[in-house]
Amino acid sequence: MIHSVDEESGGGGGKLSRSTKDILFGSLAGMVSKVFEHPFDLVKVRLQTQSSDRPARYAGAFDCFKQVYLTEGFKGLFRGLSMPVMGATLENACLFFTYNRIQAIIRDINGSGTSKKLSSFEAEAEAPLSIPQLAIAAAGAGSITSLVLTPIELIKCKMQVQMIAGGGQSQAAAAASSPIVSNVKLDGPVALFRQTIRENGIRGLWLGQTGTLLRETGGGIAWFLAFESSSRWLIERKKAELKRSDITKKDLGSLQLIGAGALAGISYNVVLFPADCVKSTMQTEAELRGTMNGGGKATRTGFFQTFMNIYRTRGVRGLYAGCGVTCIRSAPSSALIFLMYNKLEQAADHYGL
After folding, report:
1. What digits encode the pLDDT tens for the residues 214-225?
2. Architecture field, domain 17-350
């Protein structure tokens, strides 16, 4: 729940609660970063979901960018943007909120609970947690976030492959003589949401949950720990340079936060990228087989079987299809998230919010 005053610290002065800061700052950072990274994510999904029993449609990331632009125009690179923006808002709000709340619980268990009036910078300085304890907080945050994220990513992936699947495929072929397809009627997120529930029930919205859970839990550990570890290393260096012991993240410069955030983004994607590849394949299987338009109910392939299908037909490279372009977009995107979050928290501390 979002509080307008600092109910966690007893109220007074209209001060924002820690929960409000986590949700608000995480949401804003997520929205801005998602607009930047979406074209890269669209290319990643299309590379991941290429048919395993037919020749590849795209030669690589650059070829995919080129084909999307030539056949669908500039707008095609942002197909399905509404769902990722919503997802990024919920994902980052949930991640930072849960991550910091679990840290607070661990501090209470350790008997080192800090005053709820303290900012996260001050709490970290007063009662720092070990790397394994931060890993527990990160894993918990990732696993809970996966439940929120799976339905949103399901609809996003369906939208991103519309032009190469089912009815979209035939319409695109019919318009092949035109360099840009601008008049093709495609289902929006609400229509796809209703269609998914109608054909597969509420549980159908969580298709690919296993892949999302693995990616968010393991990836969350890699994401937060890469940022925390590099930040602590930078803090120690700054302590030695300034000969001060009261240095925290709020004393790090923008470039230092960007570097730590970029490392976090790369770590997040490399660690469990195959799980994301399997998840994307599962979520778009029906569209790419044309079952949604054929009137029959799709026969779903399970997580392990999908993994083995990709591995047998395309090997390890197939499981990491789109990883390069994902790292290219995730490094600056993650850097932007951590930079915005920390700068917003610094501003809140400065103005006493």
Report:
1. 889 998 999 999
2. Alpha/alpha barrel (1.50)
16-53 pLDDT, tens digit per residue, is 787 888 889 989 988 888 888 888 878 877 887 776 66
Q: What share of the chain is helix, strand, coil (3-state, %, to 5)?
A: 75, 0, 25
Q: What is d(CA 312, CA 318) in angstroms, rounded to the nearest whole number?
A: 9
Domain boundaries, the chain: 17-350
Q: What is the DSSP letter of 250?
A: G
Give ∠ CA 165-167-169 in degrees, rounded to 5.
50
Q: Which of 50, 73, 92 is nearest to 341 (CA)?
A: 92
pTM for this one?
0.73
CA dist 206 and 185 (Å) reads 26
Give dist(CA 187, CA 159) in Å, integer.
8
Q: How far apart are CA 94 and CA 5, in angstroms?
A: 20
